[in-house]
Amino acid sequence: MASLIHAKEDIISPKTEIDTAPMMNVTISQGNRKDEEQSVHHAPIVSPYNDKIRPLLDTVDRLRHLKITQEGIQLPTIVVVGDQSSGKSSVLESLAGISLPRGEGICTRVPLIMRLQNNPNPEPELFLEFNEKIIPTDEGKITDDISIATEEIAGEGKGISGNPLTLIVKKKGVPDLTMVDLPGITRVPVHGQPEDIYEQISKIIMEFITPEESIILNILSASVDFSTCESIRMSQRVDKTGQRTLAVVTKSDKSPEGLFEKVTADDVNIGLGYVCVRNRIGDESYEEARAEEAKLFDNHPLLSKMNKSMVGIPVLAEKLVKIQATIIQRCLPEIVRKINAKLLANEQELNRLPKHPNSVAEAMTTFLRIVGSAKESFRKILVQGEFDEYPDAQEMHCTGRLREMFDKYSQELHSKNVVNRDFLLDKIKVLKETKSIELPNFLPKAVFLTLLQRKVKGISTIPLDFVEKAWSYIEDVLTSVLLRHCENYPQLISSLRRAAKNLIAKKKQQSIDWVNVVVEMENLTNYTCHPEYSTTWSMLMADQATLMHRVNDPHSSNVVYIKRFGEINIAHLRHFKGLVEEAYDVKMRITAYWDIVLRRMVDNMALHLVFSIKNLVNKEMQRNIIEELVGPQGTGLERMLEESPSVTEKRNKLEKSINLLKESNNIVANIIDISFED
Ligand code: GDP
Ligand code: MG
To answer: For residue 278, which atom of ligand 1 is closest to its CA?
Structure first.
């Protein structure tokens, strides 16, 4: 049988004893004498610290079996990568001393986790683990069983899958190693392979080699230029300095020329060094294969020049065992810390999940609490301008946003109706229509009112648009506040949305009614007791004389400067000489009065809005929502008694994860004391 490792009792020669201090770059002292070299080839691989490492490796394997990586906790792993047919399976086969599916094309279609365990029992024991099943197998059947398992995981044909298959090999003489064999990389899909095979395989490989905890075992065929290997490019992407990459060069027997130079030059940055091997060829037995390998590196004129610490499967096995010990010892404390942190976080999250109410009374209490806290949040952002609950959500900073809307409203009101073209012409037309037989300079009230009504009509849509916009905005904010507070009771969402909608619709209608009354009042009566009206009018009238002078003098300039209106062309006014004076007066009265109207529109709107919002927050909101949910038509409370599926799902997921982490914690608790004492 393949005996890479002899039983423990006969292994320890001073030469092969390995420093127990963890280290990554392993070199093995070499002997000069022939017999010493011989003993390197058949070197026992079990090192004295294996007794210590074995439980650690078992721990990691048990964590892997629990699928702890699902919790985002990465395990130290030796990952085998290489281009298609570079010899990955052959290397694993050599290490395990068993036959694996091997050959041209893509054989490995799922990640194969290989757990090698040295076992005193002379009878090897082999198991396949996949899809929650454990299937015993043996050396004769293993190739077929792997193919059957692969088909069950990845389907028949050439498809691949990221779900792993675990092969456990308990055998006397194998090194205690766990490695993952991955599908080989291929650029070009061959017969029956899916079109995106390269992307699929790259994705799986990247998943395995990206974590810092992974050691990349890069299998390179001696016959190729290493720098063109796809697997080298991939490992360089995640491990630039190569500090966690070890290269295994296969097929040394086929391409010995220049191999020594290639590995010495190290053009591709392999931090953990190279090991050149010769795998089993054809029907050779393992013993024959190892003997042939030893002969090759001893006698070949080119290959024998290589340092013995760089050649042969036993050297590779020993290096891997050492590297594995190092990474496990380095990673375990962090893994323990992560398990505990994750466990704590999940337990806290589980506690935060809403207690499920058991009675209508309990549901009522919960509901009132939700509405109460929503009301408080709403008051803060809408009335008090406190944004501690929404520091970064600009759209929830209501006082500021409403202020912006309001300023825009005011600007819009002021910019409407400002036209300097055909100065006074509209006034003249109205005067002409309304004049009856009466004294000149006697301004009829109807003229003023007609003109005022036109102006009011011109702006009447602006306050309506504004209240429409303001309440739509407040509805969005109210809905979002309510939804945030009932996060854990999604069954309330639709009722709360409806409540918010109905409530705001009511408020909006009130505002529209109010605006209509205000506009109607401005339409019907012209009144102000504000002294500014007279002051402004007098000030504006000061330019009347100049204007009249120009209008009456055909030789004077057509342009007159009038306060508030600037440079005005008056050519057209010369046709209406008799009416200009009065028209000017009317215009200035309207102008002075319009200032007052606009101020009323703006000020009253501000008062109205603040008043309505305060009423909404302080009185209406809570009452309306409660009525909507628990009123005659409301079914909200009954619905609260059923736990929502999403919360149930969250709870189940957390509970499952907590169990897994607790189990992991138990596993690591057993070894943590023994593993880090030195
Ligand atoms: P994988 O696709 O990377 O798993 O490659 P395999 O392990 O299936 O090997 C591909 C082919 O290369 C097989 O026919 C092997 O027998 C052959 N092979 C692997 N290693 C060696 C070696 O060291 N020497 C020789 N001569 N052939 C090898
Ligand atoms: Mg393979």
So the answer is: 23
Map out the domains of the chain with their CATH numbers: 33-66+75-346+661-669 (3.40.50.300), 360-642 (1.20.120.1240)
Four-point Cα dihedral 339, 342, 346, 348, nearest 10: 110
Q: Are strands 245-250 and 274-276 parallel, antiparallel or unpaired?
A: parallel
DSSP per-residue codes, 622-639: HHHHHHHHHSTT--HHHH
Which ligand 1 atom sits closest to the C-alpha of 84?
2
Helix axes 286-299, 313-352, angle to 10 degrees: 120
Q: What is the DSSP letter of 86?
A: S
Question: What pLDDT, on a 0 to 100 scale, did the predictor assign at position 84?
Answer: 83
3-state secondary structure of 84: coil
Q: Which of 42-46, 395-399, 584-588, 600-604 is least confident?
A: 42-46
Q: Average pLDDT of 12-36? A: 35
Quote the mean pLDDT of the chain. 83
Q: What is the DSSP letter of 83?
A: B
Which of the ligands is closest to the CA of residue 112?
2
Residue 3 has pLDDT above 60, yes or no: no
The residues lining ligand 1, judged by C-beta closer than 6 Å to any ligand atom, are: 82, 84-90, 102-103, 107-108, 184, 250-251, 253-254, 278-279, 281
**pLDDT greater than 70 at residue 29:** no
Cα separation, 202 vs 220, whole angstroms: 17
Measure 186 CA to ligand 2 centroid, in angstroms.
Answer: 12
Length of the chain, in residues:
678
Q: 364: which 2 tokens?
A: 């009522």
Q: How far is the CA of 249 from the centre of ligand 1 (A)?
A: 11
User: Looking at the predicted structure, is the pLDDT value of residue 155 above 50?
Assistant: yes
Nearest CA to ligand 1 atom 1: 85
The C-alpha atoms of residue 22 and residue 151 are separated, in whole angstroms, by: 40
Q: Given CA atoms 509, 513, 516, 518 in this order, what sign does their dihedral have?
A: negative
CA of 282 from ligand 1 middle (Å) equals: 10
The ligand that comes nearest to the alpha carbon of residue 283 is 1
**CA-nearest residue, atom 19 of ligand 1:** 87
Check residue 311 and report its DSSP letter: B
User: Phi, psi (5° rounding) for residue 191?
Assistant: -20, 110
